[in-house]
Write a structure and sequence with these properties.
The protein has helices at about 120-130, 155; strands at about 10, 20-30, 30-35, 35-40, 45-55, 60-75, 80, 85-95, 115, 115-120. The protein is mainly β. The protein has one domain (about 10-140).
Length: about 180
């Protein structure tokens, strides 16, 4: 069984400037709650490829790659869905040296690296969350549920329909009686 890596000590790699290393690790992805529904990664322990390159000073250039799927209800028809995702994320962590002016802001400071330790679990979860589409579907052409009767339109087919109800704003006109 693969060992779970939630955090990784980048300093322990002892890389010199310009040197890099590829690591094959396993990270757990905590369930995501979207629209009040819970979605779980499959498998729960995901193999990830982490490329670490040492930049000048105490910085690192990082690349994270993994594939996973999320299991949960389809956001249109509520049937089980398991869309697959391929993630490729990059981060740069270049801390300021003592006495250095803050000219670049925080754009070179990764929120996942603190004191040379990478929070791999948080980065994996956030990278997945940023990749998700607006709606998780059982299939790309999911027709959803009928707004009138709630029938699954994927099974009902194109012939499913209902008689059009009159507009309630015109209901008072039906009470008029002409003599």
């Amino acid at each position: 069984m693969a060992l779970r890596t939630d955090s990784f000590d980048l300093g322990g790699l002892d890389l010199s400037t310009g040197e890099g290393r590829r690591l094959e690790l396993h990270a757990a992805i905590e369930p995501l709650v979207l629209g009040g529904e819970e979605y779980r990664a499959a498998p729960p322990l995901v193999p990830v490829s982490l490329d670490v390159s040492r930049t000048t000073g105490e910085g690192y250039a990082l690349r994270l790659r993994f594939e996973t799927s999320l299991e949960g209800p389809c956001m249109r028809c509520l049937e089980p869905a398991a869309p697959a995702f391929a993630i490729d994320a990059r981060e740069v962590s270049q801390p300021r040296r003592a006495g250095e002016a803050d000219e670049g802001g925080d754009e070179l400071h990764s929120p996942y690296v603190q004191d040379g330790v990478l929070d791999l679990a948080a980065w994996v979860r956030d990278a997945l969350a940023l990749t998700l589409p607006a709606a998780l579907l059982c299939r790309p052409d999911c027709a959803g549920l009928c707004p009138v009767c709630g029938a699954d339109l994927n099974r009902a087919g194109p012939e499913h329909g209902h008689e059009r109800q009159p507009d309630p704003r015109w209901a008072k006109l039906s009470e008029l009686r002409f003599q």
